[in-house]
Hints:
mainly beta, six-stranded antiparallel beta barrel, 11% helix, 55% strand, globular
Amino acid sequence: MTIFDTSINTLFADDNLAVDAIYTPIVGAPVSVRCIRTIEDEQTFQFSGGQVVNKIKADVRVSDVTTISAGDSLTIGSTTYKITNPQMRDIGQLIWSMELLD
């Protein structure tokens, strides 16, 4: 285990940052995971008008879920989100980052 693995595990163990969630693939059994959820403001310009849209994103460890596909779901608390645009974002390939639709 590298120092990056240890650091990632520490972040996901912190109750101030991460929450328990259930990852459910389209085909297969649900898996308990820890995720870090963020909400980002994204400004869009459609038809010459500016609009701010909230994007819900989540990070999940690759060690918890080895593959994620668009259309899978992530349940946080009582809310189930559809996963869109999953990708491994970090240089060490340790974290899945994904956009969520509710």
